[in-house]
Amino acid sequence: MRSGAGAFLAVLSCPVAVMFCVAVVDQPMALLAHADLAGHRRLFDAMTHVVDPIPPLAACGLGVAGFAALLGWRPGAAAQTLIACCVATLIAIVLKDELKFAFGRLWPETWVEANPSLIGDGAYGFFPFHGGRGWSSFPSGHTTLVTAPVAVLWARLPRWRPILALPVVVAVAGLFGADYHFVGDMVAGLYLGAACGAGALALVREPVGTGFAPPP
């Protein structure tokens, strides 16, 4: 019962936190990043590339695991954790793209296709199902992709949590410093990535008493 209540509160906290950011935090923080941190944009941009290896590694890892399974391999606990990381990442790729289209949020600055933006045009808001790369700021894909596998490892390797948090911190700091995303975008990405990780763990978790595991 307690775990169910905790999960409900966690889900409820997401829209509350995002709406607070949209109403109060996003615009002033984007303006601050543009005004005070623009001179360090190259460094912050480099920090966001910590995410780049994650999708190809996830695709390759799941492909190798699937091929090995065809040859009779059955994953142990460590391999199940890695498979869950791959699954969480690939789920995150699909969900973040669909949500970007659904919410249609403008970016803090003009990046692609001469899109309207807060900094460039004073434009701010959501335009659901508008489509186009210029209307795809929410949620942050980078934040989602780095959080999804980390959420799996966070649950399976609690002793390593201080180290596991580092890539998420680096990516989020880079996105904020380069003014690539609003704070609310990144908050939503954190929640979405965590949800993908939890879902992937549920898929690979060994059922109790069902004979799922191979005999010793």
Automatic annotation (TrEMBL):
Q: Which UniProt keywords apply?
A: Membrane, Transmembrane, Transmembrane helix
- The portions of this protein that span the membrane are 6-25, 46-71, 77-95, 163-182
Q: Locate the Phosphatidic acid phosphatase type 2/haloperoxidase domain: which residues? A: 83-204
The answer to whether UniProt assigns keyword Plastid to this entry is no
Q: Which Pfam families would you find in this protein's record?
A: PAP2
State the protein's name. Phosphatase PAP2 family protein
Native species of this protein?
Answer: Lichenibacterium minor
